Amino acid sequence: MQGRRDRKNRGNIIRKYLLTSIFLLFITTGVNAQIEQPRRVLEIGIAGGLNLNKMDFQPTIRQKLLNGANGGVSLRYTSEKYFSMICAAQLEVNFAQRGWEEDFDDGTGNSYSRTLNYIEIPLLAHLSWGKEERGFQFFINGGPQFGFCIGDSEEYKGSWKPEERPTSIRPVYGKEIYNTFDYGIVGGLGVELKTKAGNFFVEGRYYYGLSDIFNNSKTDDFGRSANQTISVRLGYSIRIL
After folding, report:
1. What average pLDDT is seen over the chain?
2. What are 162-211's pLDDT values in tens digits?
3. H or E stretch covering 202
4. Which of 123, 31, 139, 43 lies closest to 85 in space, CA to CA?
């Protein structure tokens, strides 16, 4: 019963957020007749950085943040300026390492970690304030994100054995990824420097997964197993139109 309620709540969150995201993307497309300052700017960019990952497990597993890499390409279309806000839509294709590291908290050096490799596709509303040609802009990104797990790896360190661990978390060791399709919510804040040679930016992001990597039916081991990631990214873009 609790699992069904949790899934229903997540479903409501998904619907509300997707509707909000669609609205934000809609206002960046230039179809609003009240906008007085249209823009037609297309930029292509690259970015990369560090992911700090954990998983939202039910039952809970004590964890440390697992470090991973991220990097990819982006395409941003700026459609208008509304008062001081510059509105754009941004599409990205990224490689990202997610996963988790279990915290044994026993002082022995024992550890277990699992790295999940994803191709991810964020669909973002990009809203910025500041200089359009030369100078600094502050920006926020937000929208849905979809991903596909293309591989994973486990790392065991120390002399421990899975059967020695608490009963509630033993099934995670060696457990096959059930759901390779991932979706969730991503949002970020950043600063971009516009120069003659191109645009340089730094951004922090948070990703909240709404899907589970393991099956979550009443008879399964985990009721929830979703990605959560903090990212720090550096990037560069140039105008092509």
Report:
1. 90
2. 999 999 999 999 999 999 999 999 999 999 999 999 999 999 999 999 99
3. strand 198-209
4. 139
Residue 127 amino acid letter: L
C-beta separation of 85 from 68 below 8 A? no
Q: Is the pLDDT score of 73 beyond 70?
A: yes
- Within 10 angstroms of residue 225's Cβ, the number of other Cβ atoms is 25
Q: 36: burial class by Cβ within 10 Å (0-12, 13-18, 19+)?
A: exposed
All residues at 6 or more sequence positions from 72 whose CB lies less than 8 Å from its CB, including other chains: 46, 47, 48, 92, 93, 94, 95, 120
Its pTM stands at 0.86
Q: What pLDDT score does 30 carry?
A: 47
Rounded to a whole number of angstroms, the CA Rg of the chain reads 20
- At the second CATH level, the architecture of 2-239 is Beta Barrel (2.40)
What's the CA gap between 156 and 240, in Å, rounded?
47
**Spatial separation of the C-alpha atoms in residues 103 and 106, rounded to whole Å:** 9
Average pLDDT of the residues in 14-31: 57
Q: Collapse the DSSP code of 175 into the 3-class scheme (helix H, G, I; strand E, B; otherwise coil) and give the result.
A: coil
Mean pLDDT on 23-28: 56
What distance in Å separates the CA atoms of residue 106 and residue 91, rounded to the nearest whole number? 44
Residues 88-115: b if buried by 16+ CB within 10 A, e if exposed: bbbebebebbbbbbbebeeeeebebbbb
- Give the start-to-end residue ranges of the domains of the chain: 2-239
139, 89 Cβ separation under 8 angstroms: no
The amino acid at residue 204 is G
